[in-house]
Amino acid sequence: MLGLFRDPKDINELQGIWERVGDEFEGCLLKVYREENELIGQLIVSTPAMLDAGWVIGDKKWREIEYVPEEGWQLLDLRKQYDTQNKKLISTDYAHYWISIGGFQHSRTLRLHQSKVPLFPDQNWKKVGELLVQ
Length: 134
Hints:
Layout: E1 16-21, E2 29-35, E3 38-45, H1 48-52, E4 60-68, E5 72-83, E6 88-101, E7 109-113, E8 123-129
Antiparallel strand pairs: 1-2, 1-8, 2-3, 3-4, 4-5, 5-6, 6-7, 7-8
């Protein structure tokens, strides 16, 4: 469980179902789980806005989710350039993000930000479900 006295390197806290909140993709869901030697976040529920922007169920939106000593949690976030008129994917790449986990009152939240100093998050997520971790 995420909270004040958690182990900052415990990946079990990141595994589960996360819902995006507070922007045009609000309502989409990612399942964060271990696939072989990598922690990933896979899109399991999309929104009309995401579909219109070229996202599909099954996209691996987050890759290489890892804790780096002295740096904290980091990941690579999938970006898509999509031609909405012609419904064609133009390009994809992954951008580096830092992760801020929780907060004093919201221990089940993630904030992704491109700056190491988390002043203005680019994405906000809340944990809405757990996975059975084996």
